[in-house]
Specification:
This protein is mostly helical.
Amino acid sequence: MNEVDTLNDKHSKLITDHLRFLQGRVYKVTEHDNTTKKFSQFQGILNNIIDYSNDFKSNSNEGEGLEEWVYMIPNLTLYASIGFLIGTRTDNLEQHIDFEQELTVCMSSTMNTVGELSDMLTDLSVMEEVNKIMGKC
């Protein structure tokens, strides 16, 4: 998987954990499909999302689009995971996998990650305000 540009260590951990979680869920689904290399295809999708996020950060003016960028990977990977899971759904795989449960778990993980990222951004904003106030003293 490509290296992800992040804001700080907490952002890095949240994004890395989320990506690994999704990889694990997709691997679970694709391990029963011996006819194709679906897991590698999903890895390619994740790499494209990471590259897009890194390019977005590189091409943004300082501070502009920060929130959009912070939430970009979880949002895009959710849509990619949903599309990927629906696209891999076959009668054979449905004998091994509860696709509805997999979709629910992916959505729940993404919502938790977005909530943690929101808390992180709030903490950063509060720290900036504190630093401004302390700088005036």
